[in-house]
Amino acid sequence: MTPWIWVLVIAIVVLAATVVTGMLLGARALRRLSDDRQVAQERREQEVGDAQAKVEHANAKAASVRAEAAAAKAEAAAARAEARRVLENAHSEADTVLEHAHRQAESDAEQVRTAARRSGEREIALLNATVKEQSAEVERRAARIDERERLHSEEVERLVERERRLGSLEAELIKRETSLKSREIAIKEAEDTKHRELERIAGLTVETARSELIESIEGQAKREAAILIRDIEQDARSTADTRARHIVVDAIQRIASEQTAESVVSVLHLPSDEMKGRIIGREGRNIRAFESTTGVNLIIDDTPEAVLLSCFDPVRREVGRLTLEKLVLDGRIHPHRIEEVFDSAKNEVERLCDRAAEEALVDVGITNIHPELMKLLGRLRYRTSYGQNVLKHLVETAHIAGIMAAELGLDVPIMKRAAFLHDIGKALTHEVEGSHALIGADVARKYGEHEEIVHAIEAHHNEVPPQTIEAVLTQASDACSGGRPGARRESLEAYVKRLERIEEIAGGKIGVEKVFAMQAGREIRVMVRPDDIDDIGAAVLARDVAKQIEEELTYPGQIRVTVVRESRVTELAR
After folding, report:
1. Cys bridge to 456: 312, 373, 471, 488, which one at CB 3.0-4.6 A?
2. Measured between alpha carbons, how far is 453 from 368 in angstroms, rounded to an integer?
């Protein structure tokens, strides 16, 4: 209810109270008049005038009261009219407020639709970029599949050629068998003739002639068998060596890939030298927070616009490098921001490791593998061994082992899997003590790998003697990948010691005048005195030097030993 209605109600209540009060006063006056009549009749006439005056006065009061009631009714009507006016004004204001609210709601809805449209456009652009990236990845995989199909077709052609050669060999064997049969017939006829001639000339008995004939044939057979065995052994040895060299060289040439030498230090270029002060922070708090959070040592020296990150764990070093790179690009460098960016960089490196492991598995052709083994393989993306990336080394080793297994008629998937997982223990060598071969074997056995694969892993460095052909081929493929020229680098100290030892070996021989190590130790030339060593001695010296180098030194590839013996005669013409 509005205030005007309350005022009207209060006025009516006051008016009603006034009327009741007047009636009560009138009743009291009448009671007094009746009392006065009973007490003093004689005074009635005298007081009639006073009573009439009082009645008139009461009538006047009643008239005034009725006038006040009429005025109150008028005021109430005015109050109701005012209340209706106020209610109409309130309705009009409410309509105005509702209309304004509708317009504001429409404006907010339009803004929300605009924001949603912009967000949808950004999402569409992001999806288009993702689709383009996936399509590029599909094209790369299709190219790899085409390459594999080409390799398979070449393998099929080689198999066809091999079948053709086997067919020709089989035909030659049939011819030889026919000639052997005819030769056996001729020998039998000769033996019969000999028997008859011996019986005629010597007059020997059949038993005596048979014993002499057996001794003669036995001696001849033993001689022919010895000659045949010697020829077969020489043929098998030369054929086996040639075949083994062909398999190994073919595998290395087909699978050899480029390698990048890496170290335990990463370099991050800065936009300016002023950034070094922001990286250090007030009283060095930023650099201390960075090193304690990432576990990477930050080296800031006088190198212009560059800082060094040092850490023996390659994954942690990459996380630290990415963290510092993001901090430099962002510009906000403080302890709390360092922790946030470190978590983001750590997740990004884990995603890169997982993607590298997936690509390596696709490249090798392995599909079913435990997720924990996949995580360990991804960590090898940032691990190197003598400058050779371990994950690329595993892929290369698996391809070499697969080619060898195919040439030898073995189980190619098992062989490739064993070779691919042989260095899995290197992902844990910073955390677990022991040889990476034994660590990798324990990890593979823990995650359900076959016992043949586990044995190949633990035996590839001879901690455990190899018992299967898979273990031997794993050793061979590992040596092919790591020992081929250009695959691994060696330290300067080891390189210098190897050259010095090569020159010492050659220089210690009798008759040697000078020794030159050439082509980074790949060739050694020995100059000898012609008076002390002849041509045969030079050949013997070259063989002795090569044999001693093989026994004492470890080196990639091969070393050529060349002995130079020359005679010079000088005469002056005067």
Report:
1. 471
2. 14
Task: For residue 261, name the pLDDT band (cuts at 50, 70, 90).
Answer: very low
Compute the distance between CA of residue 468 and CA of residue 401 in angstroms, rounded to an integer. 14
Provide the CA 321 distance to its chain's centre, in angstroms. Answer: 17
The whole-angstrom separation of Cα 551 and Cα 456 is 26
- Name, in order, each residue with C-beta under 8 angstroms of 264's C-beta and a sequence gap of 6 or more: 310, 311, 312, 314, 317
Q: Which residues of 135-152 are buried (b: 16+ CB within 10 A; e: fewer)?
A: eeeeeeeeeeeeeeeeee
- In this structure, what DSSP letter does residue 51 have? H
Structure-token pair, residue 547? 């044999």
Query: What CA–CA distance (Å, rounded) separates 69 from 20?
Result: 13
Residue range 9-41, pLDDT digits in tens: 677 777 777 777 777 777 677 777 666 667 666
At 59 the pLDDT is: 73
pLDDT band at 432 (very low <50, low <70, confident <90, very high): low
CB of 387 within 8 A of CB of 488? Answer: yes
Alpha-carbon distance of 63 to 19, in angstroms, equals 11
Asked if residue 305 lies in contact with residue 270, where contact means CB atoms within 8 angstroms, the answer is yes
Strands 560-564 and 523-528: parallel
Half-sphere exposure of 263 (CA within 13 A, CB side): 8
Burial 367-398 (b: 16+ CB within 10 A, else e): eebeeebbebbbbbbbbbbeebbbbbbbbbbb
Amino acid (one-letter) located at 354 = D
pTM, two decimal places: 0.42
Residues with Cβ within 8 Å of 405's Cβ and at least 6 positions away in sequence, in order, are 411, 412, 415, 416, 473
Nearest of 332, 326, 317, 318 to residue 344 by alpha carbon: 326
* Number of other residues whose CB lies within 10 A of the CB of residue 430: 13
Provide the sign of the torsion angle of the four alpha carbons 365, 370, 375, 376, taken in this order. negative
- The first and second tokens of residue 71, run together, are 């005025």
Distance CA 103, CA 109 (A): 10
DSSP 557: S
Contact 323, 290 (CB under 8 A): yes
Total Cβ atoms within 10 A of residue 208: 13
Instruction: Tell me: pLDDT of 95 over 80.
Output: no
